[in-house]
């Protein structure tokens, strides 16, 4: 059998080029959140998602961030919007930061969990990895509710083998000086701390090939 060395070489170079292109293609990150991710009450560019974009550039990680967060968003709203966002942006990573508004309204944990489960499944079916960002409710909602709400995120992360940030406001929630006048939304000083809570779980996902 004769081998055409020229054709073999050209074919090999082509495969290498395709492989390199696949590995170097920028990743798309979709952030689906509420006011905590939508820069509520902040000057543009001071929220943790904007800081994440800056961090990616500093780390020389080729990734595009699409912030689809809306103030007041609930898990049901995120669930309704997600299919169109997946179709439009085809993200590699989906960051789900939802549930706080469900909890503050005292909505059933079971309903919020079902919505989050549906969003995780939708994302994974579209070949996206999911980072789940957890939240805690204030103690005045009662021990049973607050524990079930907090545990919801851990249960889902374990079931779907998704990385989890247990509490995005760790190191912030107990410091009144880090909140805006409404005492609900973190101020600009708090958002680098929020990013520091999220980055260790997020970075391996966006760096993975």
Write a structural description.
Strand 1, helix 2 (48-58) and strand 2 form a beta-alpha-beta unit. Strands 2-1-3-4-5 form a five-stranded parallel sheet, sandwiched between helices. The chain is α/β, with parallel strands linked by helices and 209 residues long. Helices cover 49% and strands 11% of the residues. Helix 2 (48-58) crosses helix 7 (191-207), helix 3 (75-89) packs parallel to helix 5 (109-125) and helix 5 (109-125) runs parallel beside helix 6. It contains seven helices and five strands; from the N terminus they run αβαβαβααβαβα. The protein is globular.
Overview in brief:
The chain has helices spanning 5-24, 48-58, 75-89, 100-104, 109-125, 143-160, 191-207; strands at residues 27-33, 63-67, 93-97, 129-133, 164-165. The protein has 209 residues and is of the alpha/beta class.
């Amino acid at each position: 059998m004769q081998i055409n060395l020229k054709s073999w070489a050209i074919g090999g170079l082509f495969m290498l080029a395709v492989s390199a292109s696949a590995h170097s293609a920028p990743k798309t990150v979709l952030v689906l959140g509420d006011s905590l991710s939508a820069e509520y009450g902040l000057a543009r560019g001071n929220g943790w998602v904007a800081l994440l974009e800056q961090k990616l550039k500093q780390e020389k990680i080729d990734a595009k961030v699409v912030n689809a967060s809306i103030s007041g968003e609930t898990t049901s709203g995120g669930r309704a919007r997600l299919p169109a966002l997946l179709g439009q942006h085809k993200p590699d990573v989906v960051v789900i930061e939802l549930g706080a508004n469900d909890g503050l309204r005292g909505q059933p944990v079971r309903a919020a969990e079902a919505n989050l489960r549906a969003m995780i499944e939708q994302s994974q079916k579209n070949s996206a990895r999911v980072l789940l960002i957890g939240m805690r409710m204030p103690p005045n909602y009662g021990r049973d509710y607050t524990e079930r709400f907090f545990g919801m995120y851990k249960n889902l992360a374990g079931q779907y083998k998704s990385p989890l940030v247990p509490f995005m406001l760790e190191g912030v929630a107990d410091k009144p000086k880090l909140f805006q006048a409404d005492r609900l939304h973190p101020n600009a000083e708090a958002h680098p701390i929020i990013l520091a809570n999220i980055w260790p779980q997020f970075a391996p996902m966006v760096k993975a090939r």
